[in-house]
Amino acid sequence: MSDLSTPGREQRPDPSPEQNLDQSRVPTASAAPPRRSAQEQAELRERRTLEAARATRAQENRQRTFYLLLSVLTPVLLLALWELTARFQIIDPRFFPPPSRIAAAATEMALDGELWSHTWPTLLRLLVGGGLGAVAGIAVGLLMGAFRPVNAAFGPLFAALYPLPKIAIFPILLMIFGPTELPKMIAVFITTFFVMQINTVSGVWAIDRKLLEAGSAYGATGLDRFRFVVLPGALPFVFSGLRTATGTAVVVITAVEFTGATTEGLGYLIWNSWQLFMPEKLYVGLVVIGIIGALLTWILTTSEKLILPWRRR
């Protein structure tokens, strides 16, 4: 029987039926995984979106907690450092008494009523004079921003009066009205008025012209245009002006009470404590003024977040 195999070529046995069956079970590279349905893909996207939102919210909560701890621990550490350096006389305790002595003096003044007899007059002057000045400044600023003739009439006058130191006007007010409450409130009124007038005018002029055109397209004219377009558009600048005016008004009323035209107020308390060399009471007055300013600023910031939710940060 002759050999039919080709010389130099190895003869391979034919695969058995079992081997053919095993090879058919091995997945090939061309085999694709089963495709998800449209509903499964939508559920997967929604699940990923929720997971990303939860992760972002958790990160924001961690950051918020960290910032809160930082804002609390920083003043506590500074007060502790002040206390230790004053106790060990690294700094002169005659000029920088320890915070514990200042707190004891504040407690004593609060219990005997001395602290409140100076706090309420200052707070009243701020609220009445500053509140009326803010309302008048916003109203005039809206008119000057919305109507060019009004701005042309009063703009140069206000630009000349605004740089004048408000404390320099106070002696004139004393000559006219005498040593009463009216000059102090007018000084705060003037201070707040100019700050609010300038910020409100800037807010009206900063409104996007497209918003004005959109309001006109929807039929907003006259009072409606002023109410629904101009006023909301200027509100961010108004709130910024209110915060600035609050700080400026606190400075002015404190300086006005320094003059001796009154025997009540936190400014008078600070000045009188300096004259009598009672540093603990002097620092108590400074702390209370700082608390009032911070409280008013917090109220304005919270109100802005409620009234202008799109400005939340």
TrEMBL record:
GO terms for cellular component: plasma membrane. Keywords: Cell membrane, Membrane, Transmembrane, Transmembrane helix, Transport. The keyword Transmembrane applies. Residues 1-44 are annotated as: Disordered. It is a multi-pass membrane protein. It is found in: Cell membrane. Residues 119-300 form the ABC transmembrane type-1 domain. GO terms for biological process: transmembrane transport. It comes from the Bacteria. The chain crosses the membrane at residues 66-85, 123-147, 159-179, 185-207, 228-256, 282-303. The keyword Transport applies. It holds the Pfam family BPD_transp_1. Residues 24-41 have a biased composition (Low complexity). Belongs to the binding-protein-dependent transport system permease family. This is ABC transporter permease. The lineage of its organism: Bacteria, Bacillati, Actinomycetota, Actinomycetes, Micrococcales.
